[in-house]
Design a protein that fits this description.
The protein has about 500 residues and is an alpha/beta fold. It contains 16 helices and 21 strands. α1 crosses α2 and α10 packs across α13.
Length: about 500
C-alpha cells in the first residue's frame, strides 16, 4: 500500500513593518494571496463599508498584475466593488486613490525593495496611511481562520461585465493634487540637468512626465520593466544605485533623484555622484519645510532615524515624535499629532499636506524644490548646499548593514540575539562610554548611545530573515568602529 503524505500546513502569514512579503511560488502563492484578500474583505464587511469599495494596485514585479487580479476576485465574491489600476503604479497611488474615493481600504501587490524573487501584499487604511496594528490584527486573525479552507472568489471578467470593477489611471488626478502644494511650473522652468533612477520600478516615467514641458532637462535610466531588476535589489541605496552615481560622477548633471521599486522611497545624489544618505534626506526635507516654507508643525521619525531631527527641532521650535520602525506606526502618529512630515530610516517620507503615507515621487519633487531655492540663495552646486545644511544640522556619518540569517533558524537566532545584547553591552561600546541603552518598544532590538550622541541600533527585521545594524556617528572613524562592533555582536549570538 502506498503511503500518501499529508498536505503541508498552511504557511503562517504575518504582516511586518510594511505588509507581508515572501518568495514567489514558495510561500507567496495565489492561494495565500487570496487568503490575505479574504482578510481584507472581512475587515471591510465588519465595518459595514462594503459600498465604499477597495482600491487594488500592483507594481512591475513578476506576475504582480495576476496576483492583483486574484486578490480582486476574492473581494468581488463578497460584492465589494474594486477600483483596479490600469497599469503598474507607484504604491502611494493606491493611498491617493483610497483618499480621493473614500474607499474602505487599499491593497497593493508589491515587495517594495525586496529581492526580485519575492512579492508582497500591502494594505492601506481608509486614511490612505499604511494599515496600523489594529487593522492588521483583524486581518491576520481572519487569515488564521481561513487556513486550509477554500476562499470564495468571483471571476474578474464576470464582475467587470457586471460593473463591479473600474480601471483607473491616477496620473491626471495626482498631478492636480501635487499642484496644490508644489509649484510644478517653477520646477519645470529651472535651468538644470536632472538624472532620475527609478530602478526598473513602477515609478518609471512619473518624474519626467510631471516635469515635462519646460526648460529643465530630465534624463531617466532603467525605465523599462525588468522583474529581475538587473540583478540588484531595487532599493535606492548603495551599492544598488552605484551605476547612477557613476553617471553623475562623469559630469553633465546637477542632481540625481532616486526611487525604489514601488516608488514610495526617495533618494538623492549630488552633482559629483556623492550619495546623499537617507538620514541626510530626512534632515534636508525637515530643513526645507521649516526654512523655506516656514512651517512649524510636528515631525514624526522612526527610532532608527537621524539625531539631526532633534537638533533641527530645537532650532526651529518643532516638536519631534519618535515611533517604532515602519509606517504602520509613523502614519497613525502623523495623523494623531497633525504632523507636517513623517520619515523612516529606509528612505520613506510622508507629508501632512499631501498623504500620511510614503511618497518617493513627492519627496523627490520637494528635494528638487529645496536645492533650487538654495541655488537662488547663492548656495550652489548641490554639494555646497549640503555643506551649508550640515553647518546648521550638525554631522551625520551614517551606515547600515544587513546580517542575513538562515530563514529556518531565524526565530531562534532572534531570541538568542536579544538575550545576548542585553547581557553583553553595558559600560563600553567601540571604546566609547555607553551613556544610555534604550530597548525598542517593539521588543526586537536595542539602541545604544555613547557619550557624544553617536548611536548604534541592532534590530531584528519584521519582514525578512535578517538583523539590521545601524549607526549614526559624529565622525567616519567612529561610525566604522560602531558598525564593526554591532556586526560582531550579531554574529556572536
Amino acid at each position: 500500500m502506498t503511503d500518501i503524505a499529508a498536505p503541508p500546513a498552511a504557511a503562517p502569514i504575518v504582516f511586518g513593518t510594511d505588509g507581508w512579503r515572501a518568495r514567489v511560488a514558495e510561500d507567496y502563492t495565489f492561494e495565500n494571496v487570496r487568503r490575505c484578500a479574504d482578510g481584507v474583505a472581512r475587515y471591510v464587511l465588519d465595518r459595514g463599508a462594503q459600498e465604499n469599495g477597495v482600491v487594488v494596485a500592483y507594481d512591475r514585479r513578476f506576475a504582480s498584475e495576476h496576483f492583483a487580479m486574484a486578490a480582486s476576485e476574492v473581494l468581488l465574491a463578497h460584492d465589494i466593488p474594486v477600483a483596479f489600476a490600469a497599469q503598474a503604479v507607484p504604491t502611494q497611488m493606491s493611498s491617493y486613490e483610497v483618499v480621493q474615493r473614500g474607499a474602505a481600504a487599499g491593497i497593493v501587490i508589491t515587495a517594495s525593495h525586496n529581492p526580485w524573487t519575492d512579492n508582497g501584499f500591502k494594505v492601506k487604511a481608509p486614511s490612505g496611511a499604511a494599515a496600523g496594528p489594529d487593522i492588521l490584527a483583524v486581518i491576520e486573525r481572519q487569515i488564521e481562520r481561513n487556513a486550509g479552507t477554500s476562499v470564495e472568489r468571483r471571476p474578474f471578467a464576470d464582475a467587470e461585465d457586471a460593473g463591479l470593477v473600474e480601471r483607473f489611471d491616477p496620473f491626471p488626478g495626482y498631478e492636480r493634487f501635487v499642484r496644490r502644494t508644489v509649484d510644478l511650473d517653477a520646477l519645470r522652468s529651472a535651468d538644470v540637468d536632472l538624472l532620475v533612477e527609478p530602478m526598473y520600478g513602477a515609478g518609471a516615467g512619473w518624474l519626467p512626465r510631471l516635469l515635462s514641458g519646460g526648460r529643465i532637462r530630465v534624463t531617466e535610466i532603467h525605465e523599462e520593466r525588468n522583474p529581475f531588476f538587473g540583478g540588484i535589489n531595487p532599493e535606492p541605496i548603495r551599492p544598488h544605485v552605484d551605476q547612477a552615481l557613476a553617471i553623475l560622477a562623469g559630469g553633465g548633471y546637477d542632481l540625481g533623484l532616486l526611487l525604489d521599486g514601488d516608488a514610495d522611497r526617495a533618494g538623492a545624489a549630488d552633482e559629483r555622484g556623492t550619495f546623499i544618505h537617507q538620514l541626510e534626506v530626512t534632515g534636508l526635507l525637515m530643513y526645507y519645510l521649516a526654512e523655506h516654507r516656514g512651517w512649524r508643525d510636528p515631525v514624526v521619525i522612526s527610532v532608527n532615524n537621524t539625531s539631526m531631527g532633534g537638533r533641527l527641532g530645537e532650532r526651529f521650535g518643532i516638536a519631534v515624535h519618535e515611533t517604532p520602525v515602519g509606517f504602520k506606526f509613523i502614519g497613525p502618529k502623523m495623523i494623531e499629532t497633525g504632523a507636517m512630515m513623517g520619515a523612516e530610516e529606509s528612505g520613506g517620507f510622508g507629508f501632512g499636506m499631501h498623504l500620511p503615507e510614503r511618497d518617493g515621487i513627492y519627496a523627490d519633487l520637494l528635494l528638487l524644490d529645496l536645492f533650487l531655492r538654495e541655488k537662488a540663495a547663492g548656495r550652489w552646486p548641490v554639494s555646497r548646499a549640503l555643506e551649508h545644511f550640515h553647518e546648521i544640522a550638525g554631522p551625520s556619518w551614517y551606515r547600515r548593514i544587513d546580517v542575513h540569517v538562515d530563514p529556518a533558524a531565524y526565530p531562534e537566532t532572534k531570541r538568542r540575539l536579544l538575550v545576548h545584547l542585553q547581557r553583553t553591552v553595558r559600560a563600553e561600546l567601540a571604546g566609547q562610554r555607553v551613556a544610555r541603552i534604550d530597548p525598542l518598544t517593539t521588543g526586537d532590538g536595542y539602541k545604544f548611545f555613547v557619550a557624544d550622541g553617536s548611536w548604534l541600533l541592532v534590530r531584528a527585521s519584521g519582514t525578512e530573515p535578517l538583523v539590521r545594524v545601524y549607526t549614526e556617528a559624529t565622525s567616519e572613524s567612529l561610525r566604522e568602529a560602531l558598525l564593526e562592533t554591532g556586526e560582531r555582536l550579531v554574529r556572536a549570538s
